[in-house]
């Protein structure tokens, strides 16, 4: 998927106990289905005594690969609820696994749906969401008197400085969303009345706050 999209900030896990059953949600950022299956195999090995290991994941350029499993829970009470939480958060390239150690008390269909949904939702909240974007590295060269004006603009636009080089002039190194590069350059040219030079570098993959 080349367009910007949301995903999780990092891998992580959360646990909760509901009527003596332990639910552990492990959530991972994935690149493809093969990686998802490798992670699932590892989690199954780590939790051999678990009663159920349910999961859902979405990946592919258009999220065309969507998989879910109830792993022995009543149909539609585990895998689908996990998948629906991923969809509701509009996140992509994510695998969520909810591991259940049965505590002896049945939860019923509604209770199971709530347990698996809330486990996944709590994991997403714990790790956070970021936006995956293709950005272009840009170096802006200006005279010293213009530095304050450029700094204020970058701060207002929430563009982070990667580096600042001080010589006879100032060079500000930043990253800009590639699809917004032309508009960005025009804004800087207008702001500084054309008194700047641009050097465009390579495209890079970054994860930024949405």
Short description:
31% of the residues lie in helices and 39% in strands.
Give descriptors for this structure:
alpha+beta, Ribosomal Protein S5, domain 2, Alpha-Beta Plaits, five-stranded antiparallel β-sheet, 31% helix, EFG_III/V, Impact, YigZ family protein, UPF0029_Impact_C
Give a structural overview.
InterPro entries: EFG_III/V, Impact, Impact_N, Impact_N_sf, Impact_YigZ-like, Ribosomal_Su5_D2-typ_SF, UPF0029_Impact_C, UPF0029_Impact_CS. By secondary structure, the protein is α+β, with helices and mostly antiparallel strands. The protein folds into two domains: 5-127, 2-Layer Sandwich (Ribosomal Protein S5, domain 2); 133-208, Alpha-Beta Plaits, CATH 3.30.70.240. The chain has five helices and ten strands; from the N terminus they run βββαββαβαβαββαβ. The chain has helices at residues 33-46, 79-88, 108-127, 147-156, 181-191, and strands at 5-8, 12-18, 21-29, 52-59, 65-69, 94-101, 129-142, 161-166, 170-177, 197-208. The strands form two sheets. Strands 1, 7, 8, 9 and 10 form a five-stranded antiparallel sheet that branches. The protein has a five-stranded antiparallel sheet with strand order 2-3-6-4-5, with helices on both faces. α2 (79-88) packs across α3. The longest helix has 20 residues, at 108-127. The mean pLDDT is 95.
